[in-house]
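agent> Task received from the user: take the single chain below, predict its 3D structure, and emit structure tokens. No templates, no multimer pairing.
agent> Plan: (1) validate residues, (2) run structure prediction, (3) serialize to tokens, (4) report one or two observations.
agent> Step 1 OK, no nonstandard residues flagged.
tool_call: predict_structure(input=
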Amino acid sequence: MLKFSRYSVLVLAVATIAGCGKAPVTAENTGAAGKAAVEATDVSAAVASDFPKGFVPDFAYRVRSKADDTVDGVAYKKLVIEFKGGDVALTDKAIEAGMTKIGYRRYKTLSQENGAIVGDYGKDGHRITATTTPRTDAMNLFDADAKGTVYFVWRP
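)
tool_result: status=success, residues=156
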């Protein structure tokens, strides 16, 4: 006989409820024909709040991980997504366009040897760093069609 802890039953119940009635967002049901749409993710309704305030990618992605961290007494939010369309350069440009739309200005760009692009954005003393990295064989990504990852770090 299988035994379940109260915690595992609670997690299963929450996951089941969170997925009820949620259809994936696609180009067909958003009216954005020909444009890659944001796909439903494993965290569905909470997705918009996972990103820096006001920012939502306009490309297909899946949330990989999210965390709150504290370094030397300073709180940080960290979010990793897998992007599915385009390449590193196109995804980086889409992130820059989204950041500009919410009032951020890119003030630094670094290209790394592994093909990653790091973008630093600022607005009113707030800073967001987005590192877009291409898929490698060493990555263990959730989706076979993922082209790489984007790692966001910012202070809430």
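agent> Step 4: summary for the user.
The CA atoms of residues 102 and 140 lie 32 Å apart.
agent> Done.
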